[in-house]
Amino acid sequence: MQANKKKQILLVGNPNVGKSTVFNTLCNKKQKTGNYAGVTVASHSGNYTYKNEEVEVIDLPGSYSVYPSSEDEAIFSKYLIDEQKNYAGVVYILEALSLKRGLLLFQQIQDLGIPMILIVNQIDQAERRGISIDIQKFSETLGIKIIQTNAKEQIGIDAVREAVYNNEFVKTDKLSFETPNEHRDFIQKLAAHKGFDNEYKAWMSLSLGTDLGRIGSVMDQLNESDSKSLVPKRLQVQETVRRYQNVDKILADIISKKPQFKELLTEKLDKVLVHKFWGYVVFLAILLIIFQSVFFLAEYPMSWIEDTFSWLAAFTSEHLPEGPVNSLISNGIIPGIGGIVVFAPQIGILLYFLYLLEDSGYMARVVFLMDRLLRPFGLNGKSIVPLVSGTACAIPAVISTRNIENVKERLLTILVTPFMTCSARLPVYSIIIGLIISEGTFLGIKYKALVLMGMYLLGFLVALFSASILKRFIKSKGKTYLVMDLPAYKKPLFGYDFKMVLGKVWDFITGAGKIIFIVSIIIWFLSYFGPGQKTNEFVATDVHLDHSYLAKMGKGIEPVIAPLGYDWKMGVGILTSFVAREVFVGTMSTLYSLEDDAPEVKVIDKMRRDVKPDGEKVFSFATGISVLLFYAFAMQCVSTLAVVYRETKSWKWTGFQVVMMTGLAYFVSMIVYQILK
Known about the structure:
Largest sheet: 6 strands, mixed
Strand content: 5-15%
Family: Belongs to the TRAFAC class TrmE-Era-EngA-EngB-Septin-like GTPase superfamily. FeoB GTPase (TC 9.A.8) family.
Helix content: 55-70%
Transmembrane segments: 277-298, 333-357, 377-399, 411-437, 449-470, 508-529, 618-644, 656-676
GO molecular function: ferrous iron transmembrane transporter activity; GTP binding; metal ion binding
CATH class of the largest domain: Alpha Beta
CATH architecture of the largest domain: 3-Layer(aba) Sandwich
Distance between the termini: 79 Å
Protein name: Ferrous iron transport protein B
Radius of gyration: 29 Å
CATH superfamily of the largest domain: P-loop containing nucleotide triphosphate hydrolases
Binding site for GTP: 13-20, 59-62, 121-124
Number of strands: 12
């Protein structure tokens, strides 16, 4: 055996069948998994070595058919067919509880002549429901090797590795789909003309009606005529009906069901969790618990981190030689980075709860619940996946809109998703809420938790309101319906999700830390130097902060931001945070450390006691609410802008989004401050 011979395989299946879990277990990767459709919206790759053979595993987005109706399915179809020469075969994953749905895509791939190994995953879930599957007969009927797995328990994974190692991929010559008589002559001529080795490839090329793997940009789809797709759609429906008739015959012979007299836990829970009234009540209660935990559980680790950075700043200030380097490190870099790191526990707690909800299967219920709520606003249930993902970061959330078939609903979701409160806003909200909201409780729940939950709900409500207005200006024909299977509830992988959170928090710290490091140096430089007092002196060093070049720049924009209640330091923070929202906190930490010679004092205490020249508190209640609303609405993330343009291919909509959100942030903040001051 030749050592280190690399082999490539594809991991394929419907959404929500455990495909990403199989991928992670095979390759020991940390790709995020979630128990609802739409988590994987781009292909991922990983490697493992088995018996000296290196295998590359490509995890393709989940799909229901080879005919793409959304951007992620287009990625799947294009890779599956265009890259056949590069991979050894397909490992296809069926979920035991949804064999009928999964066999449609399986048969299409099989008819394309692609070698396959079949996995039946989570067979224990079927057995609990009294469903018995004759695997031996199933394998003989399909003419393919079948491996039973339970990916979460790592059962059957070694059998998959062994089958891949032994090249047990099966390619069938017998087609499961027969071309309808009325199209047979034309399909045969088309196959001969294009050199296809079977009729199904010719049928598929006709049924696609477009280039394989091409969905087009959002703008292209909006401009396309629906009439162009009528004939291909009709052929696809015809094929689907015939294939399901064939699948029904197969399943009738291999599945037997015992009568179920006992209601299972999933059914019991769903009576409440998807109830048209209690479902929403439970969802709000879960959110409230999460936000209470964000403040309560994070209190001690945040205090430890804050004390550590205060000690570090004091230590460097005392032990480094006096001069610019001492000032830069102890008053600039350390406070700036510490101002971001201190919020890592809150971000981690929030993400951990979200991962547990996704992993358990509850998020699929949220999609179902929200479909009814979102329809009147021009969105559908699948829009909630990007909206919920947006509470972590808007960038993957915007990318996940590829799972939305209807182009109008997809564009609307892209435009309003940045209103959702992302983890970058959390440090801003936390520090401002800490400044203006008291430590009291209501029914045992902290006021701060209630306000934080209010900010998240505000982002969601503004997203809906914006969508309801924008839907009147975005024209697109066609109506969509949400069709989805609700998966069984599953025990979350607590340890795995915790590792995922640690990775995400570290990514946040290192990503934000790089920006804060650069911004801290720039701010320190501009604050350390200022115009000289003497006529022949252009630059003076170690000037008072109020006389620095930074202060001159900040005071230059004060007339613009004064109606919002902001002083020049807050203006500098807002300007720097246009790179990324969380930079506001790092900037304020640096500025208040530069202004105060007591590094051991916490930044929030320095901000709390700061006053304007007229004696008014800088961070009054009115100013604090104004800041919260500004960051709730403002589009302050260059990376999000880039991904919005990449997904829409439209400067018009990207520019409109920036102007709309920033303009709304400015005017709402100004009005609220003027009312409350």
